[in-house]
Amino acid sequence: MIRILFYVSCENCEKPLHFPDSIVRKGSYFYEIDKKFRDLQEGTDFLRFIDHPFEICIFVNQERISNEGEIRAAIETGLSLIVEEKYWLAHEIFEGLWKHNRSNAGKFFHAVTLFCVSMVHSQMNHRSNAVRIFDIAKSEMNQFLGDTSNEWSFSYPIDSRIIEQIEDSALSIIGN
Predict the structure, then answer these.
(1) Residue 161 sits in which domain range?
(2) CATH of the domain at 133
(3) SS3 for 50-97, per residue?
(4) pTM assigned to the model
(5) Along the chain (176 residues), what's the average pLDDT of each consecutive run of 10 residues?
(6) SS3 of 134, please?
(7) Which residues pair with 24 in a beta bridge?
(8) Are residues 75 and 161 in the same domain?
(9) Exposed, middle or buried: residue 137 (CB in 10 Å: 0-12, 13-18, 19+)?
(10) 166 and 81 share one domain
(11) CA 164 – CA 161 distance, rounded (Å)
């Protein structure tokens, strides 16, 4: 089994997009289509019929991120993906950091993962779930940021000030 994400540009992304047996998430300037295939050949055959995808991501396996340099690079990549509104991909990165880290840093990455998941739900037009998960993430983030996170409110895309505070906290948690 192989999973492929592909991105198709759109202006204002108002028109719904449907692909059979796929998950479609809507960003501000793109649709993210998430589809599973038996193998890479089936996936590439399918992609031949897609009109101008501007990015394609193929998932084969996940390896544990273990050394400090890899963790820092993963954090930077995850935050860049959040800025680009590629929340599902960012969620995958932070989920990997969370699941493989049992320390306080793992709890922090769990909260960041939940912020990403809340935005994914927003992209799928599940606003009530998005707000509920955002509030859980905000609550979990309190132990790292104190009352600062109480001032945060749900919006799509995620507020750049929240991203900056998450970035500052992430770098201090890993010791940089």
Answers:
(1) 68-173
(2) 1.10.3450
(3) CCCEEEEEEECCCCCCCCHHHHHHHHHHHHHHHHCCCHHHHHHHHHHH
(4) 0.83
(5) 87 74 90 90 86 80 65 90 94 88 86 97 96 96 87 94 93 77
(6) helix
(7) 33
(8) yes
(9) buried
(10) yes
(11) 5
